[in-house]
Write the structure tokens for this entry.
Amino acid sequence: MQTRTELATATDAAPIPLRAPGEPPVSVAAVVVLFHPHSALLARLMQSIAAQVDKIFIVDNTPASAEMPAPLNPCECPVFYHANGVNKGLAGAQNIGIAHALGENYTHVLLLDQDSALPGGAVDGLLAAELALLRAGKPVSAVGPLFIDEKTGERSRGVHHRYFRMRWLAIAPSQKNPVETDYLISSGSLIRTSVLRRVGLMRDELFIDWIDAEWAYRANHLGFSTYIVPTVVMQHSVGDATGEFMGKRFNLHNPARNYYIVRNAMYLLRDRRMSLSWRLTMVIYIPKYILVHAWLSQHRWRSLAQMLRAIREGLAGTMRPF
């Protein structure tokens, strides 16, 4: 792997330093959240990142877990393992790992889910894209890869909320320049710790959904922007299954995820740091989401009742676990 202090350009010209004179060398800490991890997928993840980061912070949300899973040890780089013993949610677990990375003065945090896998050179690619954006005067909050859904083969898209509708941006791996987007999928996101110190950590009460969007809009409220890097392509699994409704295909989630998606969207409507466009879009999006996912559920009426409860509790600010 190339050193973190410099990267060669595509034209084999002089190396590009990844830091300004007087700044600390670039160092990347991966924060990986576990919940009943599949051994083969976890081993794949560890193999894909071990040579690309300086340290891996593992936070395990698996209830009653106390031992480091076998695929985590041995590893090519230092590994810190923390077992919560209970499920503290994705945001809570991310915050534990991020806090350790901040305490050890890493310059960047790379957020990862247990079922993701990075291609070789991905971290260096994200760092180079971030550097180019910063040199161009862009106030970057986070950069992330282009995703390929392992189940469907579909590519992820950028998104811009524009008053009651989402504008999706098709992105091809052949594109060279980073694409600005309202927010990123958290897994694969590379964030400077200096930005985290200014923007703050993830909001624990959200537990699992809209965490990435809320943080990105909070950063945007302070003048930062997020970018997808098309030259870095990452495999990722979206949803538990797929279903078709009125000729369109949807990623389906389990009842708990549906509850959090609806509840957290309703809860965030009151937050003025979320863009007005996002909040207006949710007024249209959430009723459609409930209709589609209740209809495609094997237990339609129960699913509908749970999501209607999610609306009520989100608007009331009742943020208890599902």
